[in-house]
């Protein structure tokens, strides 16, 4: 583990415990760089694949799949991030959405509207992340 230490603290630690020389920069190791680049490629691939699969028009009478907006926002932030420490969204969690649908039916309060996805887009995310419950409606 590495952490930044102000110069006075560094001097005090070296005087007390010895050590050195001071590192003024810490380039990422080859393995860390490879891992980070692979993560960025995965995120980019996920977003691109999802965008293509969800582009299809949702015709009237077609089955649409519902995803909780909060889960989707976390996923969207994840795939657009360059931060390797940002965790993936985990399994799709539609439990809150299911509870709200049972409570309000089609008259969900503003802000609780689920995301409506095509089968292909939903199945892609479901294959990658799993979760549920799987919710759908007729468009």
Structural commentary:
- By secondary structure, the protein is mainly α.
- The chain has 5 helices and 5 strands, in the order ααβαβαβαββ.
- The chain has helices spanning 7-17, 30-53, 69-80, 95-104, 119-129, and strands at 63-67, 92-93, 115-117, 131-132, 135-138.
- The strands form 2 sheets. The chain has a 3-stranded antiparallel β-sheet with strand order 3-1-5. The protein has a two-stranded parallel ribbon with strand order 2-4.
- α2 (30-53) crosses α3 (69-80).
Write the SSE topology:
Elements lengths: L6 H11 L12 H24 L9 E5 L1 H12 L11 E2 L1 H10 L10 E3 L1 H11 L1 E2 L2 E4 L1
Parallel strand pairs: 2-4
Antiparallel strand pairs: 1-3, 1-5
Helix pairs in contact: 2-3, 2-5
Biggest beta sheet attributes: 3 strands, antiparallel
Mean pLDDT: 87
Low-confidence stretches: none
Q: DSSP helix count?
A: 5
Number of extended strands: 5
Summing up helix and strand content along with how strands pair, one would put the structural category as mainly alpha
Biggest sheet strand order reads 3-1-5
Cα(first) to Cα(last) distance is 52 Å
Tell me what portion of residues adopts beta-strand conformation: 5-15%
Question: Which radius of gyration do the C-alpha atoms yield?
Answer: 23 Å
Gross geometry: elongated
Order of helices and strands: HHEHEHEHEE
Helix content: 40-55%
């Amino acid at each position: 583990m590495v952490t930044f230490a102000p110069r006075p603290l560094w001097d005090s630690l070296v005087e007390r415990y010895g050590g050195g020389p001071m590192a003024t920069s810490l380039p990422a190791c080859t393995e860390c760089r490879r891992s980070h680049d692979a993560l960025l490629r995965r995120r980019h691939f996920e977003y691109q694949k999802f965008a293509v699969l969800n582009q299809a028009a949702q015709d009237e009478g077609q089955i649409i799949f519902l995803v909780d907006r909060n889960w989707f926002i976390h996923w969207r932030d994840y795939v657009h991030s360059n931060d390797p420490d940002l965790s993936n969204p985990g399994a799709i969690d539609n439990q809150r959405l299911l509870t709200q649908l049972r409570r309000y039916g089609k008259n969900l309060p503003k802000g609780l509207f689920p995301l409506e996805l095509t089968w292909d887009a939903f199945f892609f995310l479901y294959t990658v992340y799993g979760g549920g419950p799987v919710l759908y409606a007729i468009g």
